[in-house]
Amino acid sequence: MKKSHWAEPYKIKMVEPLRKTSREERKKLIEDAGFNTFQLKSADVYIDLLTDSGTSAMSDRQWAGLMMGDEAYSGSRNFYHLETVVQEYYGYKYVVPTHQGRGAEHLIARLLIRPGMYVPGNMYFTTTRLHQELAGGNFTDVITDEAHDPDSDFPFKGNIDLQKLEDIIRKAGAANIAYLSLATTVNMAGGQPISLENMKQVRKLTQQHGIRIIHDMARVAENAFMIQQHEAGYADRTVASIVKEICSLTDGAVMSGKKDALVNIGGFLALNDEGLYEEAKNLVIVYEGMHTYGGLAGRDMEAMAIGITESLEEAHIAARVYQVHYLGNLLKEAGIPVLNPIGTHGVFLNARSFLPHIPQTHFPAQALTVALYEAGGVRTVERGIVSAGRDKETGDHHYPSLELVRLAIPRRVYTLSHMDVVADAIIETYENRDSIPGLAFTMEPKYLRFFQARFRQLAPEPALTTP
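-> structure tokens emitted (467 positions)
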């Protein structure tokens, strides 16, 4: 598809001005932020690709829905609208709203994990693994090996390796498996989808052992679109029907509505087991709020219900993924090392190949986020050793095979022209990559260190030479 033959499937009726800063200003601003893009003020960012979570533009229908907020403390009509939409489009029986996705992660971990239990999953996500560990669980990665290879073009890197899953079941015993944590599109692997064929095989294996599947469905529509485009037998299926089939292969789900559902705040826990639902209803009151609002205003639930329906519209989801691929292909054509294949919610730069002179212990992906901000005011996020954190037993860093910088693209916010500007900043940075220094901690938080850590720049690394 040529750029001249494509346009965003919406028109713009409100704009938010962007502020451009000079390189000299940005160097000072990122130093003041401890060389951590999370600590920058949004007013000092030109193009913000830090995350696609809660940063989407809502539609006219969603804004209209905000005016229909029923702010009753209990029994809000907006909750019942959200419940109906979840049942219709996802197929889960019961819904417990939460303030965002990590609220649902906390609830399910507290409900199902006992100290010493194992939680296999298709690659960790930061907050998910932390909630599992705080509940006493042990996360175990059972994703396919291709997911750890940034150069592999395997189209379903989110797949679960059945042998790895069988091995952990045999090692731990099925009774000591809290649940299988299954993500549709795997964030830390580069937004990579899981195939329906793999999910069916996983469902069969888990049923044999009586193990629940809890679905991280924040980007399930994006995963369904990739199935439609790349998995045999699904080209003529709607994204909505594929989403419903995906959900039918799981026992419950945690949802961050800040992704697919196109809202700025909100999430839910969805379940099929009535007994577990009753426990969740009781627990949510302790940590979030009444089970019919879960820390959300009625207007937020209304916007989320409307956003779910919009997320499954074919024109929307195709445009959303196309914009990501447009940027990814620009970078690939320019010879920039990116993770292959391009995923669905962002483009991931391969920091190991981009900055081979910086060892992993000097945080090359974090260093690259600094350089990109300095070059063009583009805010990105590290997804490597800093995000991976430390081993809770040894205290040493986790050393992930992937050292990435994520350019997460908000939905319905930027145009292709913005993507052109981002590509220019990355290409310029790549041309000057040898001058980028590594980093060291000056302050390291105990939990989820990538959010609040501060760094200092090190002396330039010696250039690699070939004998």
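The chain has two domains: 3-52+314-457, 60-311.
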